[in-house]
Specification:
The protein is α/β, with parallel strands linked by helices. About 50% of the residues lie in helices and about 10% in strands.
């Protein structure tokens, strides 16, 4: 598939199909737990197919599991039946440990399972692009050096942080290339920890590495999407705009119209119905109201595609998810 052409057609289309980050609620459709899902490539592919059969999205997006890559480096992942996996503790706290940190091979930990899932999903889902999910370089580094201490280390030992960042970036490039090799049409990079950084620190500790990853992987057949839902994103928008990423996926901490005003008009910008407040804890009526209001405010921008603000939680109501898609369809039918 020529993904640059797909992106141009998406931008030019008068009716924009949504592209929420929707994968974990497949557990409800299949009657399985999150723990079963994250450990089985066939279940992941089957879940992506079940969602693609149920909703009229413009693309299929795999899980935003931000524990996978750090686990491959040796970090401990906490995996439960009902919650998205998380990383416990950290494995690097000084330069010596950073220097000794081994870059894993693609296939270590659960990374091989996730690549196999995308390979199978690409054979099952043929009516829309399939995007693989990966973590961003600073968000991965934070899980290796300690999420709560990451910003402190940027001040106290920036060389150590850059050492880990370089290794994280090298691994992510190979991991993304593996997704590309098995047929994925693109990737969604989640970099939420960088969304907490002041602009100057984001420009030093995240954006150069994001740029390196995109330049090493993206081409006409394989697109990069960048997700950030951090509170500092509104102050980072001008720096983000300079990267001219094919797809920006913006979290609900940033006013959607503000993002559209700052990010390049030739790039697609997606977001940002609140996944927790609306998809998980809202009602069909509340999500319809929020969805329509967002479309009324932002659909005048040709490069806008409505989405969730982040990954939709596993326990989110399918009544709410269905209401979101139905309201988007009704909105465009009424235009």
């Amino acid at each position: 598939m020529n993904m640059k052409k797909w992106l141009e057609e998406l931008r030019a289309a008068p009716v924009k199909k949504p592209m929420p980050i929707l994968s974990f609620p497949s557990t409800q459709l299949m009657g399985i737990t999150v723990q079963e899902l994250v450990g089985d490539s066939h279940l992941q592919a089957k879940g992506m197919k079940a969602i693609a059969d149920r909703v009229d999205s413009c693309a299929s997006v795999s899980m935003m599991d931000l524990s996978v890559e750090a686990e491959a480096f040796g970090a401990e992942a906490r995996i439960s039946d009902n919650e998205v996996p998380t990383i416990v503790g950290h494995i690097v706290e000084n330069q010596e440990q950073a220097d000794a940190l081994k870059i894993p091979a693609v296939g270590d930990g659960r990374t091989g399972t996730y690549v196999e899932a995308i390979k199978e999903a690409c054979t099952l889902i043929t009516d829309r692009p399939v995007f693989a999910g990966v973590i961003g370089p600073f968000s991965l580094t934070g899980r290796l050096i300690g999420v709560s201490d990451a910003m402190i280390w940027c001040y106290d030992d920036p060389d150590m942080v850059h050492t880990v960042l370089k290794k994280a970036t090298a691994f992510l490039i190979e991991y993304i290339k593996a997704y590309k090799a098995v047929g994925a049409n693109g990737f969604v990079m989640a970099e939420p920890l960088a969304g907490l950084l002041p602009p100057a620190m984001n420009a030093e500790f995240s954006l150069p590495y994001v740029k390196e990853i995109i330049e090493a992987t993206e081409d006409d057949s394989f697109l990069a999407a960048y997700h950030n839902c951090g509170d500092a994103v509104p102050r980072q928008l001008d720096d983000l705009a300079e990267l001219k990423i094919s797809i920006y996926h913006i979290g609900n901490a940033t006013p959607m119209k503000t993002a559209l005003e700052h990010l390049p008009s030739e790039c697609v910008v997606m977001g940002n119905v609140d996944p927790a407040a609306q998809f998980c804890n809202g009602t069909p009526e509340s999500i319809r109201t929020v969805t329509r209001a967002l479309l009324e405010e932002c659909s005048g921008y040709p490069n806008y595609v409505i989405s969730s603000g982040c990954d939709i939680p596993p326990a989110s109501s399918w009544d709410n998810i269905d209401a979101f898609f139905d309201e988007v369809q009704k909105f465009y039918q009424g235009k």
